[in-house]
Amino acid sequence: MQLFYYGGAGTTVYLCKDATIKLTNSIFFTAADQTLTTVGSPTGSHRATLVVTGVDQSCAIYGAVNGGDNIAVRNIQVDGSRPALGLIGGGIGLIEMGGNNVGHTVDNVHAFEPRGWSVLHLIEGYNNQCSGAQITNNQIGPSGHAPSGALQFRRDSTGNYAPGQWADGISLACQASFVSGNTVTDATDGGIVIFGAPGSKITGNTIISQDRQLLGGINMVDWSPFSGSFTGTEVTDNTIVSQSSFIKIGIALGGMTWGVDNRTVARTFGGLVQDNTFRSGKTGYFGYAIGMAGHNGATIQGNDARKANFGSIESPACFTNQFPLPTPQSFVADQWTTPGSSLQSGFTLSTLVLLVCRGPGKILARGGIS
User: What is the pTM of this model?
Assistant: First the structure.
């Protein structure tokens, strides 16, 4: 789209209502204060739709350009076309924002079926320069697939899939950002994955698993790019729903929920997890509402899992027989690898690794604790 190039800083490109625009390459922003939107700012099906069609294309919109402060994407739809065109191994996000910039906005966007690893990626930038992104009121997903043949998964209803096809909904690595009012449906890796993003507020979002199984609703497990720091990151008042499928961990803190690296230097640390709600439909369930291992100095309080179901089996694909996983339940933490943390009542404390190695099974308990 050359309008941004020729228009320069401050350019707004308006797309027509109900338009379908087929892309063979990404749309690149080129300067600060540029906006892509639909005429009249509709919030439903009348938003213009961008459709990925390039054979080797995974990205529809790229905003992580140098000198691109305050770029905005608003009131459009973006179809990543994975069902039609397939996965691109190593493909970047469907929408890439952030980078060496401040003040990026993605608002009232419906984006789904990325060919790469995430629907919406906020890049940290060189030396973690990205800050102040506003990610609000978006509808994200479906995104990716769990493998059909792996022992710890069951196929979803859309087909058979090889391993490695998971994808995130929102992937946040931009510090001091605000992520609110978003609905993420049928992501398969993380609904919202927080890569540290110190000082960010992730609040009032809804994550739903309907047909595709989800590894983690909100993940706080990655050491990079902020050397493990979640300082000032707040995850509050979100709702995570296992409507009719399986969510392994509603909110995961620490790399040992995902793996076995017990080095002190590999620990993540900090952050507040407060007043989040977990619930299930009749046939949906969690492995755990909150699981924490390999994470120091977190505060977890006021979370409610009374309307959640719990179930699953311990996957024979993992070696958790050496450290058997706790029975599926609301809140679990490893007291040995989470020093300095403040936990609400109701946590079960035990040695934990690989909480993600729960597999689909029967619902064992209906209604957890708060």
Answer: 0.96
